[in-house]
Amino acid sequence: MKRATHNRGFTLMELLVVIAIIALLVTVMVPVILGFMKGRGLSMAGNNIGGFIAFARSEAMNARQPHVIVCFSESELIDESGPIKLYAGPGMAVYRINKTPGPDEIEINYLKQLDFTDAIGGDVNFSNRWIGESPKGPIQPYLTDGANAKFAGKYKIVVLPDGRLIIPEDKPGYILDTAETMNLNTDLALTDGERFVYLDINPATGGVKRSNVLDREETGETQ
What we know:
The protein is of the alpha+beta class. 29% of the residues lie in helices and 23% in strands.
């Protein structure tokens, strides 16, 4: 005669202990994971700018026309002529500039944008200090009067047909990933609200050098 077997389940106390352990792990790990994702999103946004500038250079050299990269620190309506209204920002957009448009041609042609709000782990924008201090005046003689007027008050980088970049008040080649970054001025500065990334752009090649993701204490940035 076979002996009866009994499957022993979990007691209520054991289940409560397991649930408490899981809750504790979630409480500890979620801030760590969110912090990592925020830093990664900021880093990815910095990397994407390099690809965006490379795209603008390729378009300028292929079309043999100057292009302009325009920075938007907040969302703006940039085109309502089509069936769908087009917004840009926070981020960058690139336009082709036709200096001698024909009767049926457009002087300023929108091509593409890089949207910082798509960054993984939280919104990314230009740092407040950079927004306040970056030069935003006209760029002569590289942009037409119409382009300078359309993008007045915006930070602009002109891409010439030979691939060179005209960067207002270019700050070349000085990126340090240490506390020496305090009060550093660079061509571009991005933030996710807590961390910062600094970028220098080579005006000859369009190459972008990016700092590590830095905490506010390492940068001297304020709110």
